[in-house]
Specification:
The protein is built from 8 helices and 3 strands. It is mostly helical and 202 residues long. The chain has one domain: Iron/manganese superoxide dismutase, C-terminal domain (minor pseudopilin epsh fold, 3-Layer(bab) Sandwich). Bound molecules: manganese (II) ion. Manganese (II) ion binds next to helix 1.
């Protein structure tokens, strides 16, 4: 059975960028819902004793309940970790160098990531992925993610931005771009860098 992981900070910790009401319903409502849905979907199947990564790497495109709920479970686990009340600013070290190498500058990366988030029609996620250290930006619909073999988003996710309206609608209404600008104030670059450096070992 998978369990909802606790938030690594208080519900109001990301104010004023991400508001407390959004964080509460997002974690206790949406993420709990995906967790419950995943547990129900794998009960009695070959997936019951796998890790969540193994499940997502194994499922087929038409296994809709596990795809949606398992993706939602994994994606939000990452999302809480890559935000922090001490976040924002710019990355340092190897990640900063890779961003400069692959996008030209941090500002160019930021603009490309924002545009990718704005261009994802409907609900989905925007990813910064690493392929053995080579960085790329891609997006997925709904709760799909790059672990799923049938997506065209290839690589290990090191940063994931939820662009579902439930991530921002209470505070930012329909202004996804304003949410993305605020998201950059809370990105936990230390955690993103740690995940990036893990991909250099593979
Ligand atoms: Mn969400």
């Amino acid at each position: 059975m998978f369990e909802l992981p606790p938030l690594p900070y208080d519900y109001n910790a990301l104010e004023p960028y991400i508001d407390e009401a959004t964080m509460r319903v997002h974690h206790l409502g949406h993420h709990q819902g995906y967790t419950n849905g995943l547990n129900a979907a794998i009960k009695g199947t070959c997936y019951e004793n796998m890790t969540i990564d193994e499940i997502l790497e194994t499922i087929h495109v038409n296994e809709t309940a596990i795809r949606n709920n398992g993706g939602g479970y994994w994606n939000h686990n990452l999302y809480w970790q890559i935000m922090s009340p001490d976040g924002g600013g710019e990355p340092e070290g190897k990640l900063a160098a890779a961003i400069r190498h692959d996008f030209g500058s941090f500002e160019k990366f930021k603009e490309a990531f924002k545009q990718a988030g704005l261009s994802r029609f409907g609900s989905g996620w925007t990813w910064l992925v690493s392929r053995h250290g080579k960085l790329d930006i891609c997006t997925t619909p709904n709760q799909d993610n790059p672990l799923m073999k049938f997506t065209d988003c290839i690589g290990t996710p090191v940063l994931g931005m939820d662009v579902w309206e439930h991530a921002y609608y209470l505070k930012h209404q329909n202004k996804r771009g304003a949410y993305i600008d605020d998201f950059f104030h809370v990105i936990n670059w230390k955690e993103v860098a740690r995940r990036f450096e893990e991909t250099l070992k593979k």
